[in-house]
Sequence to fold (726 residues):
Amino acid sequence: MNINNEHLKELENEAIFVMREVSAQFEKKVILFSGGKDSIVLVHLARKAFWPAKMPFSLLHIDTGHNFEETLKFRDDLANELGVDLIVRLVQDSIDKGKVAEETGINASRNKAQSVTLLDAIDELKIDVAVGGGRRDEEKARAKERFFSHRNEFGQWDPKNQRPELWNIFNGRKNFGEHFRVFPISNWTELDVWQYIMSEDIRLPELYYTHRRKIFQRNGVYLAWAPFMQLKPNEKVFETNVRCRTIGDITCTGVTLSRAESLEEIVSEIAATRVTERGGRYDDMRSEAAMEDRKKEGYF
Amino acid sequence: MGINGESKYKSLLRFTTAGSVDDGKSTLIGRLLYDSKSIFEDQMEHIVQSSKRLGKEELDLSLLTDGLRAEREQGITIDVAYRYFATPERKFIIADTPGHIQYTRNMVTGASTADLAVILIDARKGVLEQSIRHTYIATLLDIRHIVFCINKMDMVDFSESQYYNIREQLKDLTLKLNVGDAHYIPISAKYGDNVVVPSTNMSWYKGNTFLRLIETIEVKKKSYSLDPRFPVQTVIRPLSEEHHDFRGYAGRVAGGTFHKGDNVVVFPSMLKSKITGIVNMGQNLLEAKTGDSVSIILEDQMDISRGNLIVKDNELPQTGQDISLMTCWFNEKPLRAGGKYIVRNYSNETTCVVRSVNCKMNINTLEKETSDINIRMNDIASISIRTAQPLVYDPYKKNKITGSLILIDECTNETVAAGMIGMEYE
Fold:
């Protein structure tokens, strides 16, 4: 509750301001909730922004079906505790309806397919704003993202023609069928997020702390092993102490060898690291502009 | 972040950089991140691979900031990119903006949230039209601190006299534009001289390196917003059993400090009341300072809604329907004199009509143009508007939040202009 750190206080003030602008400017509002630390921080900020009233958001989870079990329980418990609606839409349904083809092969992932399910959910539920935990420090295309990011009626992002965003005046006006993505923690870095979690004592899934897990190595990245994953002949599954630095679809989320048991230990580990958090994200390694391309199609 | 390991930052500094193609802006930022060990191994690997693929002989640090596919292909910066790094002293947010005249609007965007502006000067060329333009835009947005980096010193043999020549020209400019606080540093972004590490090639320069300067400079962030201002964003009414009578006005303090017990006036109704509580998620606070996001509770039940402004009763804002402002035009569709636009200042929204264009600025020469007053994309002009409802505001020089506004096209919903109320070029 006590933030002694001046820069964290300023980032929190900014994020709460953005949350309140969202509530005032839109009708059907959701927080994109993955069960990862950034979306958990978003939920915490939303609670703060509207206390003692209930936050005016539902939680929307686009579920690839390839989850870490623990995150689903965490998700359900959190929604229960807050008394907010939890909406889950399954990528499997989009695949069954033939709207998106399942990727095949060794590196198959449903990460990209999420965009289709997300856009369908936005359409179906008449969502006009989806609040996400994207941060500009994560990735170079995200560094160009606005706080209030316009999406046309096809859900597409047009990075070369974005609305100018001046001072802290956010223009969320739109035509019917269009929507906005809003990123309240745009200006936060990974370390800021961890320091904030520590100073606010925010509860996280156990996956973020050290635990024993079966993993294997691929192209220099440690990946969590799951029964449905295909291994190359030279890849060996072994068990060791790891923690997740990000949590997403299990097929493309790298894990870090770590014995960090507490938030203090995690913060020191992050402060000393020499690899970015998305360095372990397999989905970004596909091409130089992988994220930009996915975002144009409607990705988070 | 990174290898320095220290995790308690003292403060946050937001700065903007403006520069044109080839004057080394992206290289400076790349160098700053590289030498302060804020580039991570996987990012470095990307730069190495991209430099090779683009056929560059040396490592191209500008690839770090140019993030869009088109930018990397064309080797230019199109849009504002935000970058983050930290040292044990401070945390920094960089708004990296393109410097060409056709990107004036992006420069204005980046400058609108900055405490400090960094302007690059090519040591071979001295003060050019673009240097004047960049300095003018920084002062137009009322950035009080400007750091002039005289770059490419390696290409003028690290000449002390060349540096001083340029410095004298810049001093004239800063005097003319009334820059509050100007600094000058001779650097070579490409080789790192005076960026993070003091230059061994310019022992005649005794000042700070660029990093040391921005780490230690005292930024007068709040000095211009002493009068207490609180724009209401939304009203919080839980209507739950536990908090049945709670009615909080949610917002972010836009100036000065509010205390519990303060007498306040609510605009535009001009009704008076008293602050009985300031809350932040269960915490009861005694005061809220500029920048704090809180909820304010008043003694009286009043009709207060989004867009209202709560102020302390002894320092009242201005109010009126006829407003003069400096504006930067953002849209491909030119300004329509007599045209109607939606105007938004802080959380307040109304309609306005553009009554007149008073003059257009030639931002390369700082001369006023009154003959051609057609306002197109990237133009900066003095205009007068009339609003449907009175605006409650302060002059931009006094308060950047209550003194700024945007114009929105009614048909396309695009933000077409930025406005600074009461700014005039003398």
User: Anything to note?
Assistant: The mean pLDDT of chain B is 87. Chain B touches chain A through 79 residues (CB under 8 Å). The two ends of chain B are 44 Å apart (CA to CA).
